[in-house]
Amino acid sequence: MKIANFATFGAYLDAGTGNRKDNILLPKKQIPLGTTDGDSLEVFIYRDSEDRIIATTKTPYAKIGDLAYLKVTANTKLGAFLDFGLERGLFLPYSEQRYPLFIGKRYLVFLYLDKSDRICCTTDIYKHLSSDSPYTKNDKVSGTVYFKKPEMGVFVAVDNKYLGLIPNNEYFEDLMIGDVIKARVIKVREDGKLDLSTKDVSHKQMTTDSKVLYDAMLVNNGLLPFDEKASPDIIQRKFKMSKAAYKRAIGGLLKSKKISKTENGFKVIKK
Q: What gap in Å lies between CA 241 and CA 232, rounded to an integer?
């Protein structure tokens, strides 16, 4: 925008309407050194804390229509405020919060313009994610946890733009909304959505799981008091793995003669 005129508290930018009253204020501290009348500046337009349209030469972390991973700086009765790179925080109305927010933690949000022309954001981002990802089975990906549904699993925004889900039978870690994770694509559904797992392919994961079990036995006098009939819930709670993974890992340890079977479980074979 072109500078129309200077004032003691800043410069007014030509809004292009032909009416000086429509011109937009660029605060004095935002004006680059050496700027003169008629110069053009690249600016970002938004409403300040007093609901006035104002310009800034700062570049925000995101703009309307973007998905952004932003930090919560304040919580109020009306909503939360997130840091998006400008003097005024980005408002997240209480009605747009699908889960509790914690100051200092980052969350994935979508920016929109409300009925009062204010920039706001929402945590309801599902409809703003795409199912047209470039990934295929066994690809490694990263993403942000944006929702949890006990009967389904953990919802992940892969690359913060694609729809992903860690199904319940692949969910063994204590993941929190806002966490950034690494995962593996285990299935690309017909609609393009990605099923994910935080575990590696079975033959590689078996090595990792075997070490977890073996180390657990070493700190427990060489004993593992859970046989193949142990409850899947106990296995998941104790070792963060599925019952199938547990049986594969035990099988690997037995085959390599590192452990032997006992009446109540397994024990380390001392060499």
A: 9
C-alpha to C-alpha distance for 6 and 11, rounded to whole angstroms: 4
| Residue 2 to residue 39: CA distance in whole angstroms | 5
220 confidence band (pLDDT: 50, 70, 90): confident
State the DSSP code for 243: H
Residues 139-175 pLDDT 10s: 999 999 999 998 899 999 999 999 999 998 787 677 8
- CA 68 and chain centroid, separation: 9
Strands 180-188 and 194-197 turn out to be antiparallel
Cα–Cα separations (whole angstroms), residue 196 to 32, 186, 193: 48, 5, 10
Residue type, 225: P
CB atoms inside a 10 Å sphere around CB 147? 19
Please give the domain boundaries of the chain with CATH numbers for all domains.
3-56 (no CATH), 67-126 (2.40.50.140), 129-197 (2.40.50.140), 202-268 (1.10.10.10)
DSSP letter assigned to residue 51: S
**Under 8 Å between Cβ of 267 and 220:** no
Q: How distant, in Å, are the alpha carbons of 60, 153, 234 from that of 36?
A: 24, 58, 72
pLDDT at residue 37 in the model: 86
CB count within 10 Å of CB 256 equals 11
Task: Write out the two tokens for 18.
Answer: 């032909």
Query: CB-based contacts of 64: which residues, under 8 Å, 6+ apart?
Result: 111, 112, 113, 119
Strand, helix or coil at 238? helix
